[in-house]
Amino acid sequence: MTEASTATVRPQIRVAIVMRREVVQGLMARWQHWRWTLAEVVPQEADFDPKPRCLHDSPSEALWIYPGWTVELFTDDAEGYWLNATSPKPAFFVLWRLSDTTVEGDVPLAVPQAVSMSYHDAGRWLDAQETVENVPAPAEVVQWLNAFVKQHFVPEPRRRQRPQSFQRLTDRFGQPFSVSTEVKRNVAPRKAED
Fold it and tell me: Of 122, 123, 135, 144, which Cα lies nearest the Cα of 12?
């Protein structure tokens, strides 16, 4: 057996990411004339040019496509996929950054860095202060995701929660604390005020 035949093939799909540059309206336009947003994630077509390119450019918006992205599903992240699949709108999560490359008018170009269908990945990226956006996944991709989740996700058994009355008391700093109703000894009694 060769190494290639023993390696497991993960479920995956190929996609292209479309970013939109749009004119900013309202008061925010004083500081920023353009902004980038995630427009959509589309299935990769065989005839897509592998290089990023501008699909459309007008005074109000520009669309850039970034082909050649792979969305892989990992068995150890089945819970993250389950959270996405059971949400009201299952989605693709895309992490993107502004690059040093600029387009006309010195507008920096938005470049995708990663794409996933895991809530856990999106959460880690957001915790790292990255720009993460999502777009709804098409029905056939959601079916593919659900099939994977059904096969690999095993919910953790619920643990019985200990009743609050049996838990140790702690102060606001987490230090052990006790309450007593007994009278303390070796304490001088208070004098009644006249």
Answer: 144
67 near 49, Cβ under 8 Å? yes
How many other CB atoms sit within 10 Å of the CB of residue 142? Answer: 17
Q: CA 166, 171, 172, 174: dihedral to nearest 10 degrees?
A: -70
- Degrees (nearest 5) of the Cα angle 95, 96, 102? 175
Confidence of residue 1 (pLDDT cuts 50, 70, 90): very low
Could you tell me if 96 and 52 are in contact, meaning their C-beta atoms sit under 8 angstroms apart? no
Amino acid at residue number 79: E
pLDDT at residue 50 tops 60 = yes
Whether the full predicted model's pTM is greater than 0.90, yes or no, is no
Cβ atoms of 147 and 103 closer than 8 Å: no
